User: Which sequence fits this backbone?
C-alpha cells in the first residue's frame, strides 16, 4: 500500500467509527447511519483495491475506475445540494410563520383616525 | 371592462362599510413616505394595517404616526409574506373586505372604492387593479414593455387572462381573503396570487386604476432587470414544492 492509500484507509476508518459511535449514542438516525457507513466502507475498499473500481466501471461501460468515482461524487453532490435547497425552503417558511405569529401578537394599535 | 367606463363619477364606499374595510400595506424601508401614504389612506378608511417587513430604517415609527395598526416582522420575509401577515391580522380583527395597497404611494386612494364597489355589491369576490385598463401618465416605455411581458408570462404559465399581472392594488371579500396563502418569500408572490385567483374559482374582476409614476415610486419599485429574477424564483418554487 502506498502512503496515500494508508492515509485514505485511516480517514475512512475514522469516519466509519465516528458514524458508528454517533448512532450508538443516538445522534444519527439508523437509516442515515447505514447509508453513511456503506459510503465510507466503499471508500475504504476502493482505496485498498483501486482495480476493483475499474472493473465495476467497465461493467457499466465507463473506461476507468477514477472516472466512475468522479461521476458518483458529482451525482451525490447534486443530490446533496437539492436536499439542502428544499430544506432551506422549508426552514424559511417556518421562520416566516414564526415571524408572522410574533407580528400579530405584538401588533401596535393607535386610536382610529378621523375619517372624512 | 370597456373604455367608456373611464369617465365616471368618483365612487364612494358607503360610510356603513368603511369600518369593515381593512387596507393592508406592506412596507420595507419606506420611512420617507409611509407616514404620508398611511395618513392619506386613513383619512378615508380608518382601519389601515401597515406591516413593517423588518425595515432597518424608521419605517415602524413613521407608520405608527399614520396608521391605526402597525405590525412588525422581526426579520425581513418579503412583500408576499408581509401581505399575508396583514391579511391574517385583518381577518382576525373582523375585516369584511381586505385591500392590499402599495407603500410607495403609487396607488390612488380613490381607486380603492372602485375596487370595493363590485365586491360590496356581491358581484365578485376579488377585484384586481389594472393599470393597462386605466391611465398611467408618465409610464416609461421600458416599464410598459416589461409589464406587458409579465402579462404574457401570466397568460402562458398561470393560464389566466389578465391585463395587468403585477398590480399591488387588490381587493378581497372576507371569504376570498381567508383563502389567500402566499408562500413565495420574495416578489414572486404576484404570480402566486394569480394562481390563487384561478384556483379559488371565486369570481374576479379587473378594474381600471391609475398609477402615479412618481420619482420616488420609480426609484423604490422593482427595477426592470429584476423581472427575470422573479420569473426564475417563481418557476423554481413550482418545481421544488
Assistant:
Amino acid at each position: 500500500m502506498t502512503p496515500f492509500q494508508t492515509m485514505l484507509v485511516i480517514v475512512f476508518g475514522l469516519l466509519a467509527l465516528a458514524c458508528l459511535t454517533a448512532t450508538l449514542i443516538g445522534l444519527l438516525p439508523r437509516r442515515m447511519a447505514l447509508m453513511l457507513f456503506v459510503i465510507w466502507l466503499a471508500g475504504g475498499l476502493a482505496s485498498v483495491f483501486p482495480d476493483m473500481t475499474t472493473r465495476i466501471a467497465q461493467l457499466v461501460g465507463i473506461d476507468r475506475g477514477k472516472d466512475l468515482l468522479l461521476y458518483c461524487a458529482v451525482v451525490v453532490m447534486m443530490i446533496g445540494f437539492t436536499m439542502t435547497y428544499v430544506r432551506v425552503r422549508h426552514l424559511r417558511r417556518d421562520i416566516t410563520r414564526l415571524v408572522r405569529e410574533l407580528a400579530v401578537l405584538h401588533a401596535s394599535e393607535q386610536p382610529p383616525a378621523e375619517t372624512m | 371592462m370597456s373604455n367608456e367606463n373611464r369617465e365616471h363619477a368618483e365612487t364612494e364606499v358607503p360610510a356603513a362599510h368603511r369600518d369593515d374595510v381593512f387596507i393592508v400595506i406592506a412596507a420595507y424601508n419606506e420611512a420617507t413616505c409611509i407616514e404620508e401614504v398611511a395618513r392619506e389612506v386613513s383619512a378615508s378608511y380608518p382601519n389601515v394595517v401597515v406591516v413593517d417587513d423588518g425595515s432597518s430604517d424608521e419605517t415602524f415609527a413613521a407608520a405608527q404616526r399614520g396608521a391605526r395598526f402597525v405590525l412588525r416582522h422581526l426579520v425581513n420575509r418579503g412583500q408576499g409574506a408581509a401581505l399575508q401577515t396583514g391579511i391574517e391580522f385583518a381577518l382576525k380583527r373582523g375585516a369584511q373586505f381586505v385591500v392590499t395597497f402599495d407603500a410607495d404611494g403609487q396607488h390612488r386612494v380613490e381607486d380603492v372604492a372602485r375596487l370595493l364597489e363590485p365586491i360590496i355589491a356581491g358581484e365578485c369576490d376579488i377585484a384586481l387593479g389594472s393599470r393597462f385598463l386605466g391611465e398611467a401618465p408618465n409610464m416609461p416605455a421600458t416599464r410598459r414593455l416589461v409589464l406587458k411581458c409579465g402579462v404574457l408570462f401570466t397568460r402562458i404559465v398561470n393560464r389566466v387572462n389578465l391585463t395587468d399581472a403585477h398590480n399591488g392594488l387588490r381587493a378581497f371579500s372576507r371569504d376570498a381573503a381567508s383563502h389567500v396563502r402566499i408562500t413565495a418569500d420574495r416578489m414572486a408572490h404576484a404570480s402566486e396570487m394569480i394562481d390563487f385567483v384561478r384556483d379559488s374559482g371565486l369570481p374576479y374582476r379587473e378594474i381600471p386604476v391609475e398609477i402615479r409614476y412618481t420619482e420616488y415610486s420609480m426609484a423604490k419599485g422593482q427595477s426592470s432587470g429584476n423581472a427575470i429574477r422573479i420569473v426564475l424564483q417563481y418557476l423554481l418554487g413550482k418545481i421544488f414544492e
